[in-house]
Write a structure and sequence with these properties.
Length: 157
Amino acid sequence: MLQYIPMPTEEVRSLQRGDPDAYGRTPEHQVSDGEGAPCRHCLKNIPKGAGMLVVAHCPFPEKQPYAETGPIFLCADECEAPTDRSSVPDVLASSASYLVKGYSSDDRIVYGTGAIVASERVDSAAREILEHTGVAYVHARSASNNCYLLRIEDSQK
């Protein structure tokens, strides 16, 4: 069964308090225009007029050549991570397509697993990628900007 994993709450709360991001910078405060601002914690689009944070995020435990860092959005106010991680989150319907790619247990890209897929195919593409030898998890990212969205795991693996 697939699990859609948001950013950890403790990391998000730290950023919402103004603690530094992956580049050591204070989170930028902006107002959402209601389009294209998916929160990486609640996995919903940030509503128009709501405060949001723009931060540099690295979804890997340590720096290494494959540890991509890039911009992401978060709700400025506290939001709740989904309790049901087995349902495809709303945020995966916010764009026409996504980049999905597999990573090994040592957080390296598994070559040959990356693909740009239509939003309605993210779950099936993730399943296929997770069947590859050496793939421990999958990232879903923006197909147009490569921004990290969420992590996908197989709870049976």
